Structures are given as structure tokens and as C-alpha cells.
Amino acid sequence: MLELDGLRALAVGGVIAFHYSLGMPWANPATRLGWVGVDLFFVLSGYLITTILLHSRQRPRYFRTFYARRTLRIFPIYFLLLAIYASAALLLGGRQPTAYWAMQAAFLSSTVEFFRSWRLAAPEFVLAGVTVLWSLSIEEQFYLLWAPVVRWMRPAGLWLALGTAMVAAPALRLAAHTRYFPEYRFFPARFDSLAWGAALALALDAWPRQRIERGLRAAGFTALGMLAALAAFTGLHRANAAFAGLGYSALAMGFAAVVGWTVTRAGGTAPAARLLRLRPACWLGRVSYAVYLVHYPLLVLAGGALGVGAHAGMAALLEQRALGLTAALLLAGASWRWLEAPILRFKDRWAPAPRIQAEPQAGDLRIQPIVEPVWLC
After folding, report:
1. Residue 370 placed within a domain
2. For position 41, what pLDDT does the model report?
3. CB count, 10 Å around CB of 60?
4. In the list 63, 87, 122, 151, which could disulfide-bond 126, CB 3.0-4.6 Å?
């Protein structure tokens, strides 16, 4: 589904815009909201992973296939970068807190760092690199938790679990909120973003087309209304308690509507669907995982290579951003061609998963499994 790669491109583009405009003269309300790209990633993951799990749970080697595929997709680049960061920190920053790097290796930063923080002596590019790893921690913990739930729970139980998460997570965010918004990276407080994507997968799997369309419209308009009210009263700032409680929920609901619309219009002639299928968008979506991981540290390294200081002029800042982004895209493209794509081909031979295809039948839109290897998410 090429349009989903287009959504990934929008998500990673927003995150890049946010990081590359921090403290810059060209920062504006749109770039300051670029961090919501991570929330779109969460909803996409919730939808795609749940769709795969729903159509694999009656197949043999359910857990082995799922976790093997997730491991081969996530681990190679993650641990390669983590080894580089830890080595650079040790060589240039001195003795390191072993517990910190063990936490990152175990994908626990989205829970452990809520309760404990470390003073990490490391180069600035290392600090920028580990800054984005919390979202990978949330994804990995979601995989571990959600796969057995989907395997053993009936649909009614899944709906109950998702509804509970959608209510409990905002309440937890309000309880944990401070002006530094620590709940933003706390897995239990962010599970509802993934839950909205999972709920979309359940709906597309079981509901008739007409009900799906009504649900998507209701979710989309409700989310827009909530975000408009929050924009008026909170400015959509994460440091605001009201946004902590309701803002992420509204974003998740809205992005679920966007993903659902995209799935139901995939391959169609709608202008938005055509834009999402454009070749540059699909390419950026395909390499978005690596781009997300390296764009921020490469920005810092570009500044060091060009000698851009705190009081640099506009031309130097633009040059730094251009060099950092170019390096991130080139490195991500190389990673896809020589590391990720070969591993994915091996993954499809070693642990094949059903292909998931949106296909209308007799007025319904259901997700149909086709048993052949394919790379998803």
C-alpha cells in the first residue's frame, strides 16, 4: 500500500522540520508542531502490527514469526548506532554509566527514564542520537505486550483492552504532568496512540464499509473540534496540563481517521491519495526508519564540520541544515540498499508473513490475508 509509505514520509518530515528549526529564526507554528509526526508513527504501527497479528493468530509459529520479523527489522540499525554512540561516549566522554547503556539496549528508556535520569558525558552528536530512541522503546514494548493479547483474547476482549487504554492513558498523563511534560515519553501514558491504530485495524477487519465510513468521519471531525479548542486555550503546547490530558488523545483519534481514510482510498483517484503515492514520498517513507534515527545527530555533526557556532549567521545555519539533511538521506538510502533490504529479503524467506490487502467485497471493506511473503511496517 504505497499511500502508507507516503504517510510515513509526512511523519518523518514533520520530525525533521521540528528538530531542524529548534531555536532558528525560521521556526513557526507549523515546524513547532512537527513532533506530532511521532504520534502518526505510533498510530501507523498500531494499525499495521494489529492487522498482521489478527491474520496470523491462527497460523503455526505465531510468536516465532512475529518476533523474528520485528527483530530483523528493528535490531540491525538500532544496535549498530547504539554501538557507535556508546563507543564515542566512552572514547570522548570517559567512563560511562553501564546501567544507562543497558537500558537503551533493552529498549527500556520509555519506562526507566521516567523514574531515573543519568548524567551522560558524551559528545553532542551522541546526546542528539539517543534523544530519539525513546519512541523505539515504546514500539518494542508494544510489540512484546500486544502480540500475546491479540493471540489469546477474543475481539470483545480486545475492544475492552483498547477502550481501557484510551481512558487510562490520558488520566495517567494528567496525574504525571509537570511543566517539563515527562509523560510525553512514558510508555503507559502513550499507549493510547498505539491503541487508536489497533482499534482501526479491528474495525477494518470486522465492520461493514458503511459503518467504517461513518466511524472515520466521526473520529476525524471530533478530533478536529478537540484540537481547535485546545489550540484556542492551550496553544497546543505540551507543557500545558489540558493538552497533556486531551491533546495526545485528539491527535491519535485524528491520525487514526487519516490512516483509515488512506487505507480505504488506497489505489484510488483522490488527489490526496495520488500525492501520497508520488515516488519521492514513497522513497522517503521506505527509508524513514533510518532517516528518523540519524537526522538529528547528523545535524550536530554537520555543525561541527562547518564550524557553525552559537552566533552563526543565517547562511551558515542554512548550510548546516542542508548538509545534515543531505547526509541523512544519503546514509538512509545506503542503509536501505545494502543493509535493510537484504535483511528484509532474508526475513521473508525465513519467517514469511501473510500479505495484507485492503479489498472491498459486497459493500464491505475487510482486510484480506494473502499467504505470500511481503514486507510491512
Report:
1. no
2. 98
3. 7
4. 122
pLDDT > 60? residue 229? yes
In this structure, are residues 183 and 177 in contact, taking their beta carbons and an 8 Å threshold?
yes
How far apart are alpha carbons 243 and 229 in whole angstroms?
A: 10
Instruction: Residue 361: name the closest of 197, 199, 212, 198 by CA.
Output: 212
Q: Which residues constitute the domain of residue 35?
A: 2-339
The pLDDT-based confidence of 361 (bands split at 50, 70, 90) is very low
Contact (Cβ atoms closer than 8 angstroms) between residue 126 and residue 88: yes
What is the number of alpha carbons within 13 Å of residue 242 lying toward its C-beta?
A: 10
CB 323 within 8 A of CB 312: no
For residue 351, being part of any structural domain is answered with no
Number of folded domains that form the chain:
1
Do 72 and 65 form a contact (C-beta atoms < 8 A)? no
122 in any annotated domain: yes
Q: Does 183 map to a domain? A: yes
Pairing type for strands 355-361 and 364-370 reads antiparallel
